[in-house]
Amino acid sequence: xxxxxxxxxxxxxxxxxxxxxxxxxxxxxxxxxxxxxxxxxxxxxxxxxxxxxxxxxxxxxxxxxxxxxxxxxxxxxxxxxxxxxxxxxxxxxxxxxxxxxxxxxxxxxxxxxxxxxxxxxxxxxxxxxxxxxxxxxxxxxxxxxxxxxxxxxxxxxxxxxxxxxxxxxxxxxxxxxxxxxxxxxxxxxxxxxxxxxxxxxxxxxxxxxxxxxxxxxxxxxxxxxxxxxxxxxxxxxxxxxxxxxxxxxxxxxxxxxxxxxxxxxxxxxxxxxxxxxxxxxxxxxxxxxxxxxxxxxxxxxxxxxxxxxxxxxxxxxxxxxxxxxxxxxxxxxxxxxxxxxxxxxxxxxxxxxxxxxxxxxxxxxxxxxxxxxxxxxxxxxxxxxxxxxxxxxxxxxxxxxxxxxxxxxxxxxxxxxxxxxxxxxxxxxxxxxxxxxxxxxxxxxxxxxxxxxxxxx
Length: 457
Ligand SMILES: [Zn+2]
Hints:
By secondary structure, this protein is of the alpha/beta class. The chain has 12 helices and 21 strands. It folds into 2 domains: 3-194 and 365-453, Zn peptidases (Aminopeptidase), CATH 3.40.630; 196-249 and 296-357, 2-Layer Sandwich (Alpha-Beta Plaits), CATH 3.30.70. The protein has a 6-stranded mixed beta sheet. A hairpin with a 2-residue loop joins strand 1 and strand 2. The protein starts with a helix and ends with a helix. The mean pLDDT is 95. Bound molecules: zinc ion.
């Protein structure tokens, strides 16, 4: 089999695929507004059927359909499962878009439209890779499955139940999950899992009603009380003060660090982009990326108490509320960390602070560099781009890896994909670079070949 011929087909069919991506992005599938869901599910089913997949929509109680497609070439060959989502984020603030977010355009080597990076472009590039194999060799070198859901951007409320119900359908030897950024120089980045997230509200009530602030001399103040509590959670250097918090966190492996040492992260670009003076980890890219990846975090996402409007209002608030997200490292578990938080606040005497966990929490999960799916993605990146990809042991964000790794027993990674660090996910002017789209499709095509040949460890 000739990968050069497959790449050639990818290049030749790229413009037709971009037209297909335009049609896909014209569907305004904002899941938060429940828009265009049935027609987008039908579009995806059709897209998969056109390249020979046995594709169908699975109805999901209370949610939009999940599209599943399967292409079996040879039962003796391994099977790769690809997860994407067909929904997109809302488009506000609309006046910051240079173009209509649902009228895709191509300009200066970029494709602009809501959802092109997150993740409609990924699906079209994957389908392009399948087509290229069919044209060059008659069929792909492995068995393929797609699962495409429509509610990822609102926290996938029905996907876990779908996974649970359709374990057999989703069985595979490895999985790729959305993601797949490229660096400024075009090198792909692969992430072998994700951090988890434990999201809680901390609510402190010190009185039945607010008081006139002249009574502050004798009455408790909920805002001060909650601030004292928050101050006990985290040291100024970012270290979380809760006993045992780090106990089960996976420690850096030499092989992981070998990849991170070669990181192409640009610390100055990041500082300028955010408008910050310094980053934890200093100015050395390796130390910054190592800190980013391996540090659990405790973040005050919001804090509300008392009067916050125009002018003055003298009030001693009875209630204060903080929204806190804890990012967890693989090895940690949401339930155990929540219990540690509870017992810590109790022993510190904060019985007046209520912990309200949110159901949007996600477990951390990551696989090792030795997994077949990882080797195939890394080698495939070299075949497609001639360069070693950037490989992170996990993403600093949260994703669905735990569903695949743990519930299904299918090792999963984030990527390959078609976006880049400037894709403006969830923001106005979402875009992808045409060069990343073409290389992303080549990467997927090469990964199929490597997945077919690399031995299972
Ligand atoms: Zn998203």
